[in-house]
Amino acid sequence: QDQLTESGGGLVQAGESLRLSCEASVRTFSSRAMGWFRQVPGKEREFVAAISWTGGFALYADSVKGRFIISRDNTDAKNTVYLQMNSLKPEDAAVYYCNTARDTRELRDGQTLSTWGQGTQVFVSS
Predict the structure, then answer these.
(1) Where are the beta strands (DSSP E) in 14-116?
(2) What confidence score (pLDDT) does residue 47 get?
């Protein structure tokens, strides 16, 4: 069974940066697209970014384009996907989750394959 563990959240001021990590215990990690989502109370979980299994292609939500960068490490020792978040805004505050899919477009459309982890909380003060 897939297991996803997010970390790296915290409290920052607007304009600062954070780097989130997602460690994936997924048997086919290197052949899956990976993505980040976020959710605030009372709202649906929304797509943030996705990266192809090779790492050569990425998709971003318009709200984070130019500020966030998704990357991944497919080595045996570190099945990890990262989200570098720069120029953070108060509206970026949310619980951030990662998940997998067959390709980046499925992630963009919310068609995920893995069980959701606990997420990591990001707070951004103005």
Answers:
(1) 18-25, 33-39, 46-51, 58-60, 68-73, 80-85, 94-101
(2) 98
Nearest of 7, 9, 17 to residue 85 by alpha carbon: 17
Could you tell me if 119 and 48 are in contact, meaning their C-beta atoms sit under 8 angstroms apart? no
Report pLDDT for 78.
Answer: 66
The helix/strand/coil state of 75 is: coil
DSSP H stretches of helix in the chain: 104-108
Q: What are 61-114's pLDDT values in tens digits?
A: 999 999 999 999 987 666 899 999 999 999 999 999 999 999 999 999 999 999
Residue predicted with more confidence, 37 or 31:
37
Cα angle at 79 between 76 and 81, to 5 degrees? 150
Q: Nearest Cα to 24, choosing from 62, 88, 77? A: 77
Distance CA(53)–CA(22), nearest Å, equals 15
Q: Which amino acid is at 94?
A: A
Mean pLDDT of 6-26: 96
Could you count the other beta carbons within 10 Å of the beta carbon of residue 76?
Answer: 7
* Distance in angstroms (rounded) separating the CA atoms of residues 16 and 11: 10
